[in-house]
Amino acid sequence: MKKQLTIIAVALVLVGGGWLLSGHLQRNVQRAVAMSESAPALIATETSIAQNASTEARTMPRPVPLGSAKPVAAPASVAVDFNASLEPAHVAEIHKALEELKTIYGSAGSLDWEAARRLIAQRQKASEELVERLAQLGPGGARAMAASYTEADSTRARLLLVRSLGKVRDDQAPGALEALLERDKSFSLRKEMVLALRQRPEASAEQVLTDMLANEGDAQLRFASAQALSGREKALPALAQRLRSETHSDVQRELVRSVGLVRNDQAKGLLAGIAHATDDSALRQTAIQELGRTFGARALDDLNRLLSDPDEAIRKCTVTAVARVKNAAATALLQHTASTDASPIVRNSAIRALTQ
Question: Is the pTM of this model over 0.85?
Fold first, then answer.
């Protein structure tokens, strides 16, 4: 029974709790489940999660110093005129959606486990449908959502609007999210705004994320911004510059992964430089992993040189990266390492890679 309740708790964090990803919130729910023996208590917990959204603890230390490197210049603001008149039809549709949201998350009463599970699934589906409905508003919809956000009476309502801004068919959505990022102080909501910007295809969304990566003081938000910029070729200079000044190890490694997903020769060169020249062994290993995972055979020359590195951990990590490349050249490198490396740990790693 407790295992089933724990499963519900995880679902509540992802669905009923306003889609928040905070580890602190998850621990709170788990503690509530440990003290609970009934499905109604779970529903009550679900109702309270969104109300605590702005007070949860950070999962990474803060503040984190930004380093001595000069930050990239802040991009020109993506102006959105919130004083312009709003389309009445948009306002009415948003108001209707928020009222429906209240109904969806109304009191559930006493439920058994199966009924509670069905209710969670129904709420998830209904919430997703509301997001899709608001995403259809089109031009002018982003301003109307931002205006409604400032008047929303619950965290759950604000989260719905943020998620909708990530999908709405309106190129002013990045500017609306930028304005809300500047106004709102809630860490959880600001993180959701970064995730919404990640979904936006506009260059202006990339500008906002680049600015956050360069100037944001919270390590978790820089982490989310680096993640949101992953694979964006035009963001590569900003990712590289942040790597030169970033001091938080988790953010550094996420930056390296984001660089790898750009997948061009410049990204490969940047990863190779980190793998060869950085003092931080953990960061070097992340770069080596990305070279093997993303570039494969194109990275064999760099990986070959790393097989001669004096650091045993680096050589072992390189063996794993080479093993990802399924060609004759990679096999030859593994065979040479298996027979000549000075470390039995590295030799054994190469032997295992050859026999798998």
Answer: no
